[in-house]
Amino acid sequence: MQSNANLYASFQNIFLQQLDKVALTTTTDITYTYSELDQESARLAGFLSSLGLQSGDRISIQVQKSPQALCLYLACLRGGFVFHPLNTGYRENELEYFLSDAEPGAIICDDSAKDVMQRLADKLGINNLLILNADGTGSLINNSRDTSDEFEIVSRESDDMAALLYSSGTTGVPKGIMLTHENLLHNAESLVQYWGFTSDDVLFHALPIFHVHGLFVALGCVFLSGASMRWASAYDAKQTVKYLPECTAMMGVPTYYTRLLALPEFNKKVTANIRVFISGSAPLLAETFVQFEERTGHRILERYGMTETNMNTSNPLQGERKPGTVGLPLPGVEVRIVNDMGNNLETDEIGNLQVRGKNVFKAYWKMPEKTAEDFTDDNFFNTGDKGQIDSDGYVAIVGRAKDMVISGGLNVYPKEVELVIDDIEGVLESAVIGVPHPDFGEAVVAIVIASDESCPQEDGLIEMLKEQLASFKLPKRVMILDELPRNTMGKVQKNVLRDQFTDLFESK
């Protein structure tokens, strides 16, 4: 009989070996053992099943980070449901698209979002709405309290969907990315081996868990190695300095590291117990890499991944970590650089980066044509990134197709923001770009052309956008110009705009 390919079955194999071990400790010193995670996930899985939810049903979740939210993720895996996390910053119009497309069997949200979610649930015919607050209260926990803490893991095939995450499309239509149990297990197994995670590790976990980095990368490494975590509900640099001495590993976006470097008390003594600092989700500046090594003696390990693929490449744990590169292909991952005709390019030539492996997602949700478009005949995925591979096999990402902005480690697709801006009365057209920012890596900047005097000024536009855009997508500046630069074909030259405003935040 074929073994159960459910990712939770692999996690539980590790949990059962050390049930009394502390899996996580919050920054308020509340602890959860592996036994408690196993029992709570069983109760939640049993309760969700009692609502009539079936294997493969999506569960849409917009909650604050908490140990209970972590247990909810484990419960979705365990019950065979599809985990559909939503950024806590999404507004009503954004949520309506995601919920209408995912067609979930249940919504779980914070009490503060209850009215909005109930309105959407009624509109879309979603029958189950449950509450989970940051402090662990709410109807989800209350209603599941008396449910059994034993629940048989639902059997899943390796290519069954475990999670549905959305990567916003450049056309303004977000794409659902179907990640399978095999995708997540293969990637986590590779990372545990490549980064040397063991049960002796303590990971400082301050990342959000609606995003691949904090959800699949960090948790996968911990749960498949039986490590422990210091669990922070959000990132705070001063708090990080307090807890790093007890930890052996940290994962973060480049912003986390630049904020640490801004603190005088961050030094070699603070980092003496750390064996590896890992950075991803956005490009790490070579300057940050060098400054960090000078301050701490540690060379940050940079890696490269996407929502569609989890991790593709990584600088090695042992061996040369080249600044400005994202390292070597991970075990089982193939990477190549091709030209626009699909022909392989030589060493150091810049071209389109493609990947193939068990880490690569199954398909776009309900978008077969888009799936076919983004995969080659020999099953390589077109990442949309521009890259090059040096003579040692190290990959460098030199640009991003489609002008995506990565601000604080989160992806912002200009077209989404432009569509909202262009709908404002008095706006003729807009162009959204990313420019260097000392804290966020890149900041979203909107260039607006007014159609008449009714167009709001910068502060007014930003206030209007707050109602419709998640905060991480919100332009940090709005520049109002007479016209946009265009090439001879009439296409907006965003490279010209980026050059024009590249120093906008230099003195900030």
Question: Summarize this, please?
Answer:
30% of the residues lie in helices and 25% in strands.
Please, could you describe this protein's structure?
- With 508 residues, the protein is α/β, with parallel strands linked by helices.
- Helix content is 30%, strand content 25%.
- Among the domains are: 150 residues, Rossmann fold, CATH 3.40.50.980; 97 residues, GMP Synthetase, Chain A, domain 3 (2-Layer Sandwich), CATH 3.30.300.30.
- The strands form six sheets. It has a nine-stranded mixed sheet with strand order 2-1-10-9-11-12-13-14-15.
- The longest helix has 17 residues.
- It starts with 6 loop residues before the first helix and ends in an 8-residue tail after the last helix.
Low-confidence stretches: none
Give the spatial strand order of the biggest sheet: 2-1-10-9-11-12-13-14-15
Choose one word for the global shape. Answer: globular
Biggest sheet details: 9 strands, mixed
Number of strands: 25
What's the mean pLDDT score?
94
Gross CATH architecture of the domain at 7-156: 3-Layer(aba) Sandwich
Structural class: alpha/beta
Total helices: the number is 15
How far do the termini sit from each other? Answer: 62 Å
Radius of gyration (CA) equals: 23 Å
Task: Write the SSE topology.
Elements lengths: L6 H9 L6 E5 L4 E3 H17 L7 E5 L4 H12 L3 E4 L6 H11 L3 E4 L4 H11 L3 E4 L7 H6 L16 E7 L7 E6 H15 L6 E4 L6 H14 L2 E4 L5 H7 L5 E4 L1 H8 L14 E4 L6 H11 L4 E6 L3 E5 L13 E2 L4 E5 L12 E6 L6 E2 L3 H7 L6 E9 L5 E6 L4 E3 L2 E3 L1 H9 L4 E11 L3 E10 L7 H9 L10 E5 L12 H7 L8
Parallel strand pairs: 1-10, 3-4, 3-5, 5-6, 9-10, 9-11, 11-12, 12-13, 24-25
Antiparallel strand pairs: 1-2, 7-8, 8-18, 13-14, 14-15, 16-17, 17-19, 19-20, 21-22, 23-24
Helix pairs in contact: 1-8, 2-3, 4-5, 7-8, 10-11
